[in-house]
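Hey, quick one: can you model this chain's 3D structure?
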Amino acid sequence: MPKRTKSYETDLLERLRDSAYATEYLRAALEDNEEGGDAVFLLALRDVAKANQMAQVAEVAGLNRESLYKMLSHKGNPGLNSLKAVLKALGLKLSVEVALPVTQVFETKITPHSRV
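Sure thing. Here's the predicted structure for all 116 residues.
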């Protein structure tokens, strides 16, 4: 009898249990700043939470499961504290890095929504 292959989702969820893989997955989603970029990140974070048992992530983050699902939907708009709580529950954290030197930002008059 031929061996059954795993579905894409099953394989992805298994890989997302690895924190290094999950970190790169989320980083790639953040870099997708084109149309719908925020939704892409939230859905990626939802995948990582799902891989790590959504109910358990919600409990550790101090949220109920339904709120977590809504927050991480394509229409989600989580507050910073909620986002930090979910990331912490997953063993992750937010960080900031330089995209352009401040002087260059002001010289080129980059707006918050400009592509860098």
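One thing worth noting: The chain has one domain: 8-108.
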